[in-house]
C-alpha cells in the first residue's frame, strides 16, 4: 500500500510541471542563453526593468540564464519554463515538433552577418565542394549552410558534415584537420581574423532568415495575457535605452564576455528591431511565411519534424501573412498583437 | 683461508648503529643458527650475507673473494613467507630456477632441455616430499608445503650458502617438527652451509652446529642507538656432547641475561 | 529474532530483491510517461514503451533512408572501435611504464612525479590544446581516451608492482634471474590479472571520454547520436542508446573478468 502511495507521489512529481500550462497564475519563469540579441534580457533582469513591468501587471517573472542553449529549449519544451529565447528554426523543430504550441511573442532581430561560413586557405564558397564542414549539426548553421550551397547550385551531398560542439569550434578551427566551419558570433569573430581564414558567405546574403525570438507557451499566454504584456513592455523599454546609452551596452558586453567595441561589432551584424514598428512590419511581411517554408522543408528533410511527419507541412506555422503547412495542426505562431500593443502605446 | 670470513664488519643506518666489530669465520658444511632479541641485527646480518644489504665498514669474503653485493645464485634463500611464485605450479616453481640460467633471453626452454630440467625438478620435489602436489598452485598448499617448495626451489641452484630467514616461524608446532627433520636431512646429504635466523632458541640449538647469539655489549641509556650488537656467544655444538653442555650453558646465561626479551624467549 | 545484520535472504528472496528496484523504476516511469502523454500525446520527454520500441526498430533494424545504413550498428561499431583501441593502447602504455616505474627505481625517480601530476590534469579542461596537437578526427577521440585513462593505469600498475612481495623478487635473483627475466617471468605474469582489473575500473572513465569526444566533433558514434538527437529532444532514441551503452559497458566488464578468471586462476582463487 505504501509502495503504491510512493509511486503516485513519484508520478505526481514527474507530471506536476506540465499540468499548470493552461491555468491562470501569477508566477512565471523565463529562460535565456547568451547571444548578442538576447543580452537585453540579462540587462532587463539586473536593472529591474522586468520586475518593474511585472509589478505593473501584478505578476512575478523569474529570469534564468542557461549556459547551454539547447538545454534551455529542452527545459522550456518539457514545461519547466513559460518562455524561452530561441531561433525560428529551433522553435519549429523542438517545441513545435513536440506539439508544445508556441508563440513567437517578440521577434527581436535577424542575423545580418552574424552567421558565417569560413574556409581555410580557400577564397570562394564554391571551394567548399568535397570538404568536411565542421558545424553544429541540425542547428541554424546547418540550415544556413544548406541555403548557401543552394545559392551556388550545390547540395549537402557535395560536402560532408561533421557535428562539432559550438563551444569547441574556435579550438577546432586551429586543428589541421578542420578546413571549413560554419558558426555564429562570437565564435565567428574569433575565427575570421586568423590569416588562413576567409569568410566566404555570411547571413547578410540571406537576410531575415535566421530570427532570434522570445517564444512563449501559447496556452499560458492565452490564459495570462499580462505575462506577454509585461515581457513585451519590458523588452521595448530596454531596446529604447540600449540604443542611446553605451553604458547599458557595456554592461551587456561584459555579461557576454566581451567589451563594448566587441559587442557593438556583433550588433552591427545583427539587425535589431529596436522599435515595435520595425518588428511588426517585418513579421507581417509575406517574406516571413516564405522563410518559414524554407525552414520547414529543411527540417523535414533532416527528420526534425518527427518520424511520423508525412511532409514539410506536418507542423502548421501561423504567420500574419498566412499559415504555412497544416492548418489543423498549427504549433508555431508568429503573433504581432503584443508588439502591436507596444507600438500603439497600450502597455 | 676459511670458507666464509667476516672481517671487522659494521652496519649502521644513519645515526643508528646496528652491528659492530663482527669478526667471524665459518667453514663449509656448518649450520649456523642466529638468535637474539628482536631488533638485535641478526636479520640485518642475514640480509648482508644475502646481498640485499651492504655493510657500512669491513668486508665479507666468500672463498677469499668479496661477497657480491646483490642477491645471486651463490646464495639461496627461504623466507618465512612469500618465497614461492603464486602464479606457477609446484613443478613450474622449481623448474624456473634452471630455466632462468638456461634461457637468458626468453625465460622458457623447450624440447629435450625442458625434459632434463623437468626430471631434475621432479627429483628435488620428491626430496621435499611434494610429488603428490606436482601440479598444484601454491595457494592450494599448506604453509608447511609452501616452505618445502621454497626449499626445493633454492636447492635447484646448489647454492654455496643456504640462508633461512625464520623459515618455520609461521608454521604449527607439529609441522615444524617435520620440517626440522627434513632440513637436517637435506643439510647432511648435500653438505650445505646454512645460516638460519630464528626467534626460537630451542630450534636454533636443535638444528644448528653452531649458535650465534646477537646482543649489545655496550649500552648508553641516553642514546639506545649509539652502539650496535655483536655476536656475544659463538657456541660450537657440532657434536652431541658439546650440544648438551652448551645447552646448559646458554640456559644459565640467559637466566642472568640483562635482556628481558631473551629470557622471555627462553621461557 | 536475529539481528537485522545477521539475516541472510534466501536465494528466492534475493532474486526478488534484485529485480524489485528495476521493476519499480519501470513502473514509475510508465506511470509518469502515461500521465505526460495524456496531457500531450506528442510529448518527447518521457516517451511510451511503444515509442521507444519504434525508435529501436528504426535505428537498429531499418535501413536509414538517407544513408542506407543501420544507424545503431554503425554507431556501435564506430564507438567500440574507438574505445577498444583507446583502452588497449592505454593498457599497453600503462603496463609498460607502470612496470618500469614499479620495478626500476631509476626510472621511477625520473617519471613517477611527472605522471602523478599529469594524471591530475582533467583532460576536458585542456581540450583546445588536444585539438591542435591531435586534430579532430579518429586519432583525437582515441587520444582523449588514452590521455584520460593511461595515467591512471600507469599509477595503478606501478603501485601493484611495488606491492609484490620483495621476497619474491629476491628469491628470483637468488635463482639467477636477470632484471629482464624477473620482469618477464615473475612480475609480468603476476601483473597481468591486475592490469585487467585496472582496465575494468577505468572503463567507466573511458566511456565518459569517448562520449565527450563524440559530442565535440563526430560523424557517427553512440555519443554523437545522443548529442545530435538531443537537439530535437528525441528521448525515445536517447533512452535505448543509454541502455545499449550500459549493456555494452557491462558486457565488456563481464568478459574482462571472465578472461581474467580463465587465464589467471591462481589470482582469483585467493592467492595474492
Structural account:
- The complex is a heterotrimer of chains A (347), B (267) and C (272).
- Chain A is α/β, with parallel strands linked by helices.
- Chain A folds into 2 domains: 23-110 and 209-343, D-Maltodextrin-Binding Protein, domain 2 (3-Layer(aba) Sandwich); 115-205, Periplasmic binding protein-like II (D-Maltodextrin-Binding Protein, domain 2), CATH 3.40.190.10.
- Chain A has 15 helices and 14 strands.
- Chain A has helices at residues 2-19, 39-47, 49-56, 69-78, 88-93, 140-151, 169-174, 187-191, 218-223, 225-244, 246-255, 260-268, 276-284, 286-301, 337-343, and strands at residues 27-33, 60-66, 83-87, 102-111, 115-120, 132-135, 160-164, 180-184, 197-202, 211-217, 270-272, 316-319, 322-324, 330-334.
- In chain A, strands 1, 2, 3, 4, 10, 11, 12, 13 and 14 form a 9-stranded mixed beta sheet that branches.
- In chain A, β12 (316-319) and β13 (322-324) form a beta hairpin.
- Mean pLDDT of chain A is 89; it is low at 16-21.
- Chain B is of the alpha/beta class and 267 residues long.
- Chain B starts with a strand and ends with a helix.
- A 6-stranded mixed beta sheet of chain B has the order 6-7-8-3-9-10, sandwiched between helices. In chain B, strands 2-1-4-5 form a 4-stranded antiparallel beta sheet, with helices on one face.
- Chain B has a domain at 19-85 and 158-266: 3-Layer(aba) Sandwich (Rossmann fold).
- Chain B contains 8 helices and 10 strands.
- By secondary structure, chain C is mainly alpha-helical.
- Chain C has 2 domains: 4-46, no CATH class; 71-268, MetI-like (MetI-like fold, Orthogonal Bundle).
- Helix content of chain C is 78%, strand content 1%.
- Chain C has helices at 11-39, 49-60, 71-103, 105-120, 127-134, 138-163, 166-174, 179-216, 222-229, 235-263, 265-268; one strand spanning 217-218.
- In chain C, α3 packs antiparallel against α8 (179-216), α3 (71-103) packs across α9 and α8 packs antiparallel against α10.
- The longest helix of chain C has 38 residues, at 179-216.
- The radius of gyration of chain C is 24 Å and the shape is globular.
- The mean pLDDT of chain C is 90.
- Classes of the chains: A alpha/beta (347), B alpha/beta (267), C mainly alpha (272).
- Chains in contact: A-C, B-C.
- The B-C interface holds B 50, 52, 70-73, 75-77, 79, 81-87, 96-97, 99-101, 104-108, 137-140, 150, 153-154, 156-157, 159 and C 165, 167-168, 170-178, 180-181, 184-186, 189-190, 264-267, 269-272.
- β7 of chain A pairs antiparallel with β1 of chain C.
